[in-house]
């Protein structure tokens, strides 16, 4: 989960992905906005199947604070 700082109440953004059988595909680029946001992975809080690698890039402007839990 990533919590991005800002001066407004955060809006919830839940990422989506395609799921086919027992495989799961995830990852991508998340663009930080000037207001607070919460990002969660697909099917959070469920775990991914074993052997799945999920890579997210958070793109933020200089001076923005990103907090990961």
In short:
This protein has 69 residues and is mainly beta.
Please specify the SSE layout and strand pairing.
Blueprint: E1 2-4, E2 11-14, E3 19-20, E4 23-24, E5 28-31, E6 37-40, E7 56-59, E8 66-68
Parallel strand pairs: 2-6, 5-7
Antiparallel strand pairs: 1-6, 1-8, 3-4
N-end to C-end Cα span = 5 Å
Shape: elongated
Question: Percent range for helical residues?
Answer: under 10%
Number of domains: 1
Counting DSSP E segments of at least 2 residues, the number of strands comes to 8
Q: Low-confidence parts, pLDDT < 50 over ≥5 residues?
A: 18-23
Question: Which whole number gives the mean pLDDT?
Answer: 73
Output the radius of gyration.
Answer: 13 Å
Task: List the secondary-structure elements in sequence, H or E.
Answer: EEEEEEEE
Helical/strand content category: mainly beta
What is the number of helical segments per DSSP (H or I, 4+ residues)? 0
Strand coverage percent: 35-45%
Strand order of the largest sheet: 2-6-1-8
Major sheet summary line: 4 strands, mixed
Biased composition (Polar residues): 13-23
Keywords: Disulfide bond
Region (Disordered): 1-23
Domain CUB: 26-69
């Amino acid at each position: 989960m990533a919590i991005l700082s800002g001066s407004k109440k955060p809006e919830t953004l839940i990422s989506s992905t395609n799921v086919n059988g027992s495989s799961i595909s995830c990852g991508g680029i998340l663009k930080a906005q000037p207001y607070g946001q919460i990002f969660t992975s697909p099917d959070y809080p469920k775990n991914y199947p074993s052997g799945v690698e999920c890579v997210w890039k958070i793109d933020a402007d200089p001076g923005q604070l990103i907090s990961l839990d």
